[in-house]
Amino acid sequence: MPDWWSEVLTPIIKDAGLSYVLVWRNGNPGHFYAPYPGQASAEDFKKFARRSDVFLQKKAAAQKLYK
Question: Which region, left, alpha or beta, applies to residue 38 given φ > 0 means left and ψ of -120 to 50 means alpha?
Answer without folding.
Answer: left
